[in-house]
């Protein structure tokens, strides 16, 4: 006696319908559209690469375009470079990313027809790929108070330093999830931590108005406190590796007392004092061309020459205090000669050459070294600057509805991400400052954000106790990382992309990995 | 010249009495004695009025003393702007920390498991059914069986409630005694916010009263805390939280509650 299957329930029917609908949406390119002529342009220089090529529409997907471009450039099979293609229309100046293929991005919306020649701008992407962090590898207790700053070593993702409200900084072994060293000495909160570009030293700035230096390997103090500031330290910046005098690295510290002091790290003396700001200096950056950029509560950004401590330029446009600065070359400067291959040059001169090469590679646009600067402010806007060419901003980045706290350039300079107190992270085009998308998802103020080394991911930390990993290209949430038990003040993605370290008010460091 | 300023006029014409200053000084000096005498000896309505007046005066006095004290404080620059460590970018910002403190306080408390079942008012006085319900006997049939009841206490009635036909309506919850909002105090912070009530979770008197949404002292209600901006560990906004009613709403005309954290 055969039992008859009961008819499907409503839930099953709905699920089936849903599945059918989703499956239908798998996009196929209709055949018989013929071919389209494609002209490639280099995004960095704006020059055309090769002649216009006729490509069948059916085959015009990213993968094939990449192969075609690699062939046009004569790259060998082993050093093929992945590219990102964008289409820039001439009239409205809008930029469209080619997500999967030409048909769905350009032809189907009617932006271009098969009759036209499509000009595609390409940018090389990182040859390596960073996986999105997805789980908490370790939650390490140790700090007695909230964690205020974190930073990975530029050498590898295995060590990280964190500064805390318990007036210590701690160095962590991220592979095993254990503490390595406790850097004791400060008498108040440690507000800023920074690894030197060669990864040998750690500088910490504190609420007790002093800066201290530590040996990153041994965890010992290098000399006593460097005193001079009269208010707390807000930000630290090391001199880029290729600009340093051999054996005499320098460090810039910004303070609430509205000065920036440049320290000679070896003799522990003040090299120069940059005075001129009228309010607390919130952020300091040392550019690869040897200039120091500072942002302040007095609404200005100043550019200094650290050799003689003279002011080069003052950028005024903001209507309220400037919170944060980011350089387009930040990533290259931070990692100096440490690249994704993990090979370290042997001699010092080779290291400097490698660091300089990496910087120049990152900064060259149209065969000129251009260091762009983006500044975030309390007036809800950001400005994109090109200080070498003009003291007028390139673009004003409008869109945030509350104070913008943090801004960062992607390592490939294509994107700017900004984190605001309006719960949103916004993505902007790194070249012209055009708005790309808003990353919605946080339910509290977003404090910091950090790009992965390949610029394909972004991690943001928020007051709502979570970290969120975003896919930069699609603007979607890639991974939600709850786990912290209170607001997350600091987040950093290791320069090799393996790990994310975060710390916050719950006093525990968390290491995240894929 | 206004009609009633005859004293001033007299003083302008003839000067003050020679012993005027001394008299005023003495009157002032005896002021406290008089006040004390009045406070001890007045009876009845006069005493009540006198106490009211005195109460108001005292409030003003205390305020003024406090102002004075604050003015006199020699302020030295605080070495740390706040007690809790904050990152550089949050220093120099005036923060609305209330909701934040709420959130962390709640989390801390959660850790203590025992606190889960403790409520601020563990015991309440029982309310008899006679006191709670009034028998409605309008109409002959209703009168004969006396099955209809009117609730004499404040109630919470949900938004989607529609009354049943008269014939079937056993319990009447009077419109005038319905409440939608509660003044909810956070016990640790001492901030009070008016929040919409979402539902009645538990009336300690009787499960039936829970069902009917009766608001008496000690009742646990769920309130909408979304505007406080609390977040869960997974980063979602907390929407409803429980609170216990601390007053007798029918006496006060409002619902006061304390948040359970």
From TrEMBL, chain A:
Gene3D superfamilies reported for this sequence: YVTN repeat-like/Quinoprotein amine dehydrogenase
Keywords in alphabetical order: Nucleus, Repeat, WD repeat
WD repeat placement: 140-182, 183-224, 226-273, 274-314, 397-438, 439-480, 481-514
CDD domains reported for this sequence: WD40
SMART domains (alphabetical): WD40
Domain annotation NLE: ranges: 36-88
Xref: SUPFAM superfamilies: WD40 repeat-like, YVTN repeat-like/Quinoprotein amine dehydrogenase
InterPro entries (alphabetical): NLE, Quino_amine_DH_bsu, WD40/YVTN_repeat-like_dom_sf, WD40_G-protein_beta-like, WD40_PAC1, WD40_repeat_CS, WD40_repeat_dom_sf, WD40_rpt
Recorded GO CC terms: nucleolus
Any GO BP: ribosomal large subunit assembly
Disordered as annotated region, ranges: 1-26
Protein's UniProt keywords contain Magnesium: no
Localization annotation: Nucleus, Nucleolus
Keyword Cytoplasm applies: no
PANTHER family per the UniProt record, alphabetical: NOTCHLESS PROTEIN HOMOLOG 1, WD40 REPEAT PROTEIN
Family the UniProt entry places it in: Belongs to the NLE1/RSA4 family.
Designated name of the protein: Ribosome assembly protein 4
Organism placement in taxonomy: Eukaryota, Fungi, Dikarya, Ascomycota, Pezizomycotina
TrEMBL record, chain B:
Binding partners and assembly: Component of the pre-66S ribosomal particle.
Similarity section: Belongs to the eukaryotic ribosomal protein eS8 family. Ribosome biogenesis protein NSA2 subfamily.
Residue numbers spanned by region Disordered: 1-87
Function: Involved in the biogenesis of the 60S ribosomal subunit. May play a part in the quality control of pre-60S particles.
Protein name: Ribosome biogenesis protein NSA2 homolog
One Pfam family from the record: Ribosomal_S8e
InterPro entries: NSA2_fam (IPR039411), Ribosomal_Se8/biogenesis_NSA2 (IPR022309)
GO cellular component labels: nucleolus; preribosome
Subcellular location, record wording: Nucleus, Nucleolus
Feature: compositional bias, Basic and acidic residues: 1-37
Bias kind Basic residues: ranges: 51-65
């Amino acid at each position: 006696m055969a039992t008859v299957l009961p008819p499907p329930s409503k839930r099953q029917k709905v699920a089936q319908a849903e599945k059918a609908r989703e499956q239908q949406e798998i996009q196929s390119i209709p055949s018989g559209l013929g071919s389209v002529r494609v002209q490639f342009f280099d995004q960095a220089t704006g020059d055309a690469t090769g002649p216009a090529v006729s490509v069948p529409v059916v085959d015009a997907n990213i993968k094939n375009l990449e192969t075609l471009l690699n062939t046009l450039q004569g790259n060998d099979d082993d050093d093929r470079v992945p590219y990102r293609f964008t289409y820039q229309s001439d009239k409205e100046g809008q930029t469209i990313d080619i997500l999967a293929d030409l048909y769905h991005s350009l032809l189907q919306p009617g932006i271009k027809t098969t009759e036209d020649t499509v000009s595609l701008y390409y940018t090389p992407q990182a040859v390596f790929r960073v996986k999105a962090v997805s789980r908490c590898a370790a939650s390490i207790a140790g700090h007695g108070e909230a964690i205020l700053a974190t930073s990975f070593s530029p050498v590898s993702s295995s060590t990280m330093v964190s500064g805390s409200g318990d007036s210590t900084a701690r160095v962590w072994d991220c592979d095993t999830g254990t503490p390595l060293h406790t850097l004791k000495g400060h008498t108040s909160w440690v507000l800023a931590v920074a690894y030197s570009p060669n990864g040998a030293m750690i500088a910490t700035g504190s609420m007790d108005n002093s800066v201290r230096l530590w040996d990153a390997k041994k965890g010992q103090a290098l000399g006593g406190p460097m005193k001079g500031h009269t208010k707390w330290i807000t930000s630290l910046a090391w001199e880029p590796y290729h600009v340093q005098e051999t054996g005499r690295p320098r460090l810039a510290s910004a303070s609430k007392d509205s000065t920036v002091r440049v320290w000679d790290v070896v003799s522990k003396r003040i090299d120069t004092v940059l005075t001129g700001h009228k309010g607390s200096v919130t952020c300091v950056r040392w550019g690869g061309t040897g200039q120091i950029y500072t942002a302040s509560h007095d609404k200005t950004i100043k550019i200094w020459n650290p050799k003689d401590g003279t002011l080069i330029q003052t950028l005024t446009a903001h209507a309220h205090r400037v919170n944060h600065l980011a350089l387009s070359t930040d990533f290259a400067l931070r990692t100096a000669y440490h690249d994704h291959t993990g090979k370290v040059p042997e001699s010092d001169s080779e290291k400097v050459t490698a660091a300089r090469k990496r910087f120049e590679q990152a900064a060259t646009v149209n065969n000129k070294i251009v260091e762009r600067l983006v500044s975030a402010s309390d007036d809800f806007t950001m400005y994109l600057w090109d200080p070498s060419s003009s003291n007028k901003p390139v673009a004003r980045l409008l869109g945030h509805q509350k104070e913008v706290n943090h801004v960062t350039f992607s390592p490939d300079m294509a994107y700017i991400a900004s984190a605001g107190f309006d719960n949103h992270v916004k993505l902007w085009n790194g070249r012209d400052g055009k708005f790309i998308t808003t990353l919605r998802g946080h339910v509290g103020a977003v404090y910091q954000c950090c790009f992965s080394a390949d610029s394909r991911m972004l991690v943001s930390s928020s007051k709502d106790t979570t970290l969120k990993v975003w896919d930069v290209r699609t603007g979607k949430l890639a991974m939600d990382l709850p786990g912290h038990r209170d607001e997350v003040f600091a987040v950093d993605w290791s320069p090799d992309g393996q790990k994310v370290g975060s710390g916050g008010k719950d006093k525990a460091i968390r290491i995240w990995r894929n | 010249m206004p009609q009633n300023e005859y004293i001033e006029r007299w003083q302008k014409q003839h000067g003050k009495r020679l012993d005027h200053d001394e008299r005023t000084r003495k009157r002032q000096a005896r002021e406290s004695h008089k006040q004390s005498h009045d406070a001890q000896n007045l009876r009845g309505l006069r005493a009540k009025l006198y106490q009211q007046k005195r109460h108001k005066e005292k409030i003003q006095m205390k305020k003024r003393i406090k102002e004075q004290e604050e003015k006199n404080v020699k302020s030295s620059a605080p070495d740390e702007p706040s007690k809790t460590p904050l990152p550089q970018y949050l220093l120099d910002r005036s923060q609305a920390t209330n909701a934040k403190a709420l959130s962390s306080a709640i989390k801390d408390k959660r850790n203590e498991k025992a606190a889960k079942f403790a409520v601020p008012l563990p015991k309440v006085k029982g309310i008899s059914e006679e006191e709670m319900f009034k028998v409605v006997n309008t109409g002959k049939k209703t009168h004969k069986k006396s099955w209809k009841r009117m609730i004499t206490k404040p109630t919470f009635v949900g938004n989607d409630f529609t009354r049943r036909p008269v014939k079937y309506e056993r319990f009447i919850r009077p419109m005038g005694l319905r409440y939608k909002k509660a003044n909810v105090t956070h016990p640790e912070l001492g901030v009070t916010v008016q929040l919409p009530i979402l539902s009645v979770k538990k009336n300690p008197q009787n499960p039936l009263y829970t069902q009917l949404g009766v608001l008496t002292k000690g009742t646990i209600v769920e309130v909408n805390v979304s505007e406080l901006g609390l977040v869960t560990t997974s980063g979602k906004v907390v929407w409803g939280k429980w609170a216990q009613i601390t007053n007798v709403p029918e006496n006060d005309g409002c619902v006061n509650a304390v948040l359970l954290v």
